[in-house]
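User: quick one, sequence for these tokens?
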């Protein structure tokens, strides 16, 4: 698997609701600014790759909800962060005063080695300023943090602050940078090997079995997706050849229809999967089947109904009504009783 980066760091944005965390993240990762304010629900994230001192760093930026009711959700992400950006709004003095609370939470839940900076956002709104630059600078000194004033609207100091945050994290982890979260690649290679010897080979073979057994009344459809560990990183034109010679290999040829690659989660979710997930929000055999490790969440926004990994399966009735959803752990061949049940209920 070709490496797309050398190390991966997770940065956490903390601060009150409305201080501009989402706007900062979008300005940095997408170069866009949307003045309309929609509060983040739970946690959202974006990614961007930087090159620092010849090292390709993939930055995963987690945008946390500022509302009190989401604290239980957001705190679980503290312990996996390598860097924290504390954000207040220079036109909102309470948001500045609340930095102490956010810093206290970070002290309690974040790793000891986590790097921190303080950011006063909305510096373009000078006429509405309630917190002086000197106040911000002194608070940063109190917590031994570097300080930036930024404007997502004017794109001022956004890149500089995120880049500096990344530099601090990289420096703090310089000795083990080769291992720090670039172990993601080792994990994916291990997962690929495990799939090759078990899940992938088994599932593809069983899909062929089902299609062969019910050739006229069952239609098996395969949708390749590259959102799970970047395991489907070949081009559309290479997919069939990859199945034949790589995974599952051994000359395998699917006897069912395989479509072009698509997204099954996030902003660009294929309409088919948007519909399926709406009708069947979670696998019938595993209602808690969620992506457990935040570093593999490469889409946005994140939803409770998201497909968690390759080979989640959906069984759809003859009228197009979704019947049952199965987790990646559920053996494909074991869907057959449900298929038989649907066929018995359907007129020939």
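Assistant:
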């Amino acid at each position: 698997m070709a490496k797309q980066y050398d190390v991966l760091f997770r940065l956490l944005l903390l601060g009150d609701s409305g201080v501009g965390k989402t706007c900062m993240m979008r300005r940095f990762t997408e170069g866009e600014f949307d003045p309309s304010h929609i509060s983040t629900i739970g946690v959202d994230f974006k990614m961007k790759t930087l090159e620092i001192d010849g090292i390709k760093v993939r930055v995963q930026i987690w945008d946390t909800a500022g509302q009190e009711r989401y604290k239980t959700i957001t705190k679980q992400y503290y312990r996996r962060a390598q860097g924290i950006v504390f954000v207040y709004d220079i036109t909102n003095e309470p948001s500045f005063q609340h930095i102490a609370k956010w810093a206290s939470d970070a002290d309690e839940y974040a790793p000891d080695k986590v790097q921190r900076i303080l950011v006063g956002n909305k510096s373009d709104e000078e006429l509405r300023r309630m917190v002086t630059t000197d106040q911000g600078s002194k608070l940063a000194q109190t917590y031994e943090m570097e300080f930036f004033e930024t404007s997502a609207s004017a794109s001022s100091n956004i890149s500089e602050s995120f880049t500096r945050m990344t530099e601090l994290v990289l420096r703090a982890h310089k000795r083990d940078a080769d291992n720090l979260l670039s172990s993601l690649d080792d994990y994916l290679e291990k997962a690929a090997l495990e799939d090759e010897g078990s899940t992938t080979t088994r599932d593809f073979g069983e899909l062929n079995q089902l299609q062969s057994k019910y050739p006229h009344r069952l239609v098996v459809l395969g949708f390749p997706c590259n959102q799970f560990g970047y395991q489907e990183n070949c081009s559309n034109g290479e997919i069939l050849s990859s199945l034949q010679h790589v995974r599952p290999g051994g000359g395998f040829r699917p006897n069912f229809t395989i479509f072009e690659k698509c997204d099954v989660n996030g902003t660009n979710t294929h309409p088919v999967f948007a519909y399926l997930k709406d009708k069947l929000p979670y696998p019938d055999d595993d209602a808690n089947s969620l992506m457990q490790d935040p570093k593999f969440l490469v889409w946005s926004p994140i939803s409770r109904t998201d497909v968690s990994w390759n080979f989640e399966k959906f069984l759809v009735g003859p009228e197009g009504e979704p019947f049952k959803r199965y987790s990646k752990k559920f053996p494909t061949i074991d869907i057959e009783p449900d298929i038989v049940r649907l066929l018995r209920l359907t007129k020939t």
